[in-house]
Amino acid sequence: MKTTESAEMYLETILLLQEKRPQIRAIDIVHQTGYTKPSVSRAMGLLKKNGHIEVDLNGYISLTPGGKALAGKILERHRIITDFLVSLGVSPETADDDACKMEHIISDEVFDKMKERLSALS
Q1: 19 alpha carbon, distance to own chain's centre
Q2: Which of 66, 64, 55, 51 is nearest to 29 (CA)?
Q3: 36: containing domain
Q4: Which end of the chain has fewer CB atoms < 10 Å from its terminal CB, N or C?
Q5: What is the pTM of this model?
Q6: Residue-wise pLDDT tens digits, 55-65
């Protein structure tokens, strides 16, 4: 099943937050993203319905194994694309902003070639 760009952004945000602390709630996502509480609540409901997250009785959010795998893939794309663009001479800020947009639309073939080229540069 194809996920939306919005769902991918939320999954990536959850993964990044979980790298910083073991338990997160929707309010943490609100603070991280700047989105409204209703928007985050709706998104969490959709992610839960699609099997990407679980929410316990205390409101703590965790990624399911499938959700974590997808979030990891998105985060890897973001980091590799950012590093690749920086290697071309793009400023880190612009590279990060553009990677955020590109990670959702780039084909696996192009991403794999970027990853290969970046590895060859190291």
Answers
A1: 12
A2: 55
A3: 5-69
A4: N
A5: 0.88
A6: 999 999 999 99
